[in-house]
Design a protein that fits this description.
Residues 4-80 form the Ubiquitin Mut7-C domain. The chain is an alpha/beta fold and 264 residues long. The protein has eight helices and twelve strands. The protein folds into three domains: 5-77, Ubiquitin-like (UB roll) (Roll), CATH 3.10.20; 81-164; 172-264, no CATH class. A five-stranded mixed beta sheet has the order 2-1-5-3-4, with no helix packed on it. Strands 7-6-8-9 form a four-stranded parallel beta sheet, sandwiched between helices. It is elongated, with a radius of gyration of 23 Å. Bound molecules: zinc ion.
């Protein structure tokens, strides 16, 4: 007797995950009668974080469905923006440092591990802190412990930022977060931050902010124009305060750290 098989098709946005022969309409897949539909989809290379829905013979189905011989499965892409229950905060893996700094520049809560702590520890932190795991590692996104996850489709930071903003539409609060550590910034008087400054900086600037977590001091320095352009483009597309920072940075000048390491 022939082995049971189903037919399955994927939307073009998920073609990056599947083999070339599965990119042209529906194709046959052998099933074993015990593996769930979610397992079958994953075994073909697609992280379930990227699946917005499944249909079996045209009717909505769950990832726990046991596919039976002759059934036709359609895999649907995640809708954009994707709605999640709970606050929108993120956890980025070791390869996404530039994206982390850019999200923080826009005021998005973006935790980032600059050392590789391993998939298990990342997944556990995602679960414990209810953070969306952002990664280009499919193996990591397959982990069941994740609170939520999303594949980052591009290797270019500019495109990665657009990808995350268009996918989750997080509220933007530019210039309110420390790009170095993700802490919240507060306005700081020159007298209180003077010991952190070199002479030239102290003479040239009057408006400062300081991270409430790591004490990094920020001001409107040499990289301000470039970072402002990133902020302006994001706010133009996705909304948010245009110039004046909100909350503790209630000033018309947006402070920025004056070192080349920020938001590369
Ligand atoms: Zn900080």
């Amino acid at each position: 007797m022939d082995k049971p098989e189903i037919r399955i098709d994927f939307p073009s946005s998920l073609h990056t995950f599947v083999g070339a022969r599965r990119r042209a309409g529906s194709t046959a897949v052998q099933v074993d009668g015990t593996s769930t539909l979610g397992h079958v989809v994953e075994s073909l290379g697609v992280p379930l974080t990227e699946v917005g829905g499944l249909t079996v013979d045209g009717a909505p189905a769950d990832a726990s469905h046991l596919p039976a011989h002759g059934q036709h499965v359609s895999v649907l892409a995640v809708a954009r923006p994707q709605h999640l229950d709970g606050p929108l905060r993120f956890l980025l893996d070791v390869h996404l440092g530039t994206l982390a700094r850019r999200l923080r520049l826009l005021g998005v809560d973006a935790a980032y591990e600059s050392v590789d702590i391993g998939d298990a520890a990342l997944a556990a932190r995602s679960a414990a802190e209810q953070r969306v795991m952002l990664s280009r590692d499919r193996g990591l996104l397959h982990r069941r412990e994740l609170w939520a996850g999303a594949y980052v489709y591009s290797h270019r930071p500019e495109e990665q930022l657009q990808d995350v903003l268009s996918r989750f539409a997080p509220p933007l609060e530019p210039w309110t977060r420390c790009t170095a550590c993700n802490g919240v910034l507060r306005e700081a008087a020159k007298t209180t931050v003077r010991r952190h400054l070199e002479d030239g900086t102290e003479r040239s600037y009057d408006v400062f902010a300081q991270c409430t977590a790591c004490e990094q001091v920020y001001w409107r320095g040499a990289h301000h124009a470039r970072l402002s352009a990133i902020v302006a483009e994001a706010v133009e597309r996705y909304g948010g305060p245009r110039t004046a920072p909100v909350g503790p940075l209630n000033t018309s000048i947006a402070p920025q750290r004056d070192t080349p390491a920020t938001a590369r």
